[in-house]
């Protein structure tokens, strides 16, 4: 069988058994809310910005977010070009398979599933700790973090099953709430002329500021904060006019997230003063609560009532991210099943055209990943959140790299789109930027996970191990399949 037939077979479902996700369910804004939820803006700002400022390039951290946005934008050009010709809930898996071959596509599907489930498990750790603290603060009840996590798993399972439209509505409320308070703070600070040292434009965006200190560390955390925008393609099958909706949602998501993180981090630094921000972020980290760097100036501006509201918004931000990654992961399971790489039962859909069996399996995976940390008495933030998010960032960045290479290979062979910028130049530049980001992540992985070198090494090795496992599984599945005619 020739290579083109092999690629076609990869995405051709068995019509008698494959389910169909509900078409025309999501517009640009619906997809956008899923993407923004996956990126958990308040979690990203409160968790990543203090570290980028303290041990990265200090007041120049906002420039790192702009640089990360450029890399992601270059990647998006080829990603969108591929999306105009390939619409499938498998996204990365299908894209990479189209350009680099079925087996590497299957291996990338394993990485995608692993990364999405890992980041969701990581969020359950931070979410459980946050909600447990809120319950103790407001009610005096001492509820273990893992109980909060397991109860939420049941809620997420229900929301995932009742249909994509309901999930979009729930996420819209949570995303707007967390965006609003940070956006209002940033805008008020801007119109006030900044903090004690003014706006500090040069101190945050000049080339000297961008390259000060350890810019690689800042860029690493900036890139990590943007993980999740690629989910636009996952919902292509359920989108209205996907060849228009998905590109618009992708570019809008990249622009919004880049602008939001750069603007919010700039105003946070300005509120302290560029010369004082690094010390303030360092003290917050030393105190064991990095969120204090973010929450303190907001409370100073709006009043102490914010100290009660922001932890609740942090919890809802995490919940929104958990639900978004649940939907992404179960659609990968659904797509792999429909393509014959996983048991056919996983492509079963319910009356609302949502992946039913795949949803249950994804929830079961969450239990398997989270509960052992509870049984072992591991810290839900220092262990589960740090390890899971570190592995997920590494895995998804590898998928970005493979996708960029696949775009170039696919359009050089198929010639469906001959625009050089969209199909060669931008994807190649994006691949170079992503490769550099991967190198920075590997160089600073111990910092990213907040653990020891030995822990960092075996966590790093899980990503190529999953890739190899996916390739081997695809080959074995292929051999067991009936011979092609």
TrEMBL record:
Record membrane topology: Multi-pass membrane protein
Keywords for the protein's UniProt record, in alphabetical order: Cell membrane, Membrane, Transmembrane, Transmembrane helix
InterPro entries: AA/rel_permease1 (IPR002293), APC_superfamily (IPR050367)
Location of this chain's protein in the cell: Cell membrane
Main location, first listed in the record: membrane
One GO CC term on file: plasma membrane
Sequence intervals crossing the membrane: 30-56, 62-82, 103-123, 143-164, 171-193, 213-236, 248-269, 309-334, 355-375, 387-411, 423-442, 457-476
Record flagged with keyword Transmembrane helix: yes
Entry annotated with the keyword Membrane: yes
GO molecular function list: transmembrane transporter activity
Gene3D superfamilies: Amino acid/polyamine transporter I
Name of this protein: APC family permease
Organism name: Streptomyces liliifuscus
Lineage, highest ranks first: Bacteria, Bacillati, Actinomycetota, Actinomycetes, Kitasatosporales
